[in-house]
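REQUEST ID: PR-0412
SUBMITTED BY: lab tech R.K.
PRIORITY: routine
TASK: structure prediction, single protein chain
INPUT:
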Amino acid sequence: MSIPTTTTTDPQPGPDETFDPASTEGLDDYLVAEGLREVGNPVEGTEDEGQQSAGRGPNAEAARWRASFREAEAERDGLRERVTNLQRREVERLAEGKLAQAGDLLTYGEVTLDDLLDADGHVDAGAVEQAVAGLLAARPGLRYLPPGPSSFGLGYTRPIPRGEPETFAQAVRKTVRGG
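STATUS: complete
OUTPUT:
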């Protein structure tokens, strides 16, 4: 007596079916059949789709790490920008009494902010002095000129009379008469 046997084959995914790597459907059965896992001992991370969508699956954890990484990068970039601005202000403070506009050192000078920093990233006062001296040698018009006294050189020898302003005709008559 022979027993009729039927063979069943697992259907292969067709070209219009797509593979979902996040799906763990059938994974437990496969691992038990291959002897890689005991029956009733679920594999970590193979919970049902409801738990994965609730933020417990490996993809959700990777997404949290990526978001955390992006936040850390944004914070790092913001802090780097703040430090660069502080270094730039320190360079301008050191050049303040020597240049008419302290920012001209980095604008017109042939130096960058990195050239004015020491090995530890601090502003090197000696390097700033040398850069200012080099810039002033090349462009003396950028030198700071202190303001002179307010009453010096304006040509007034007597106080200006206050009252009605004179007309142009009165000024011409006064000039012609000499007085």
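NOTES: The chain has six helices and no strands.
REVIEWED BY: pending
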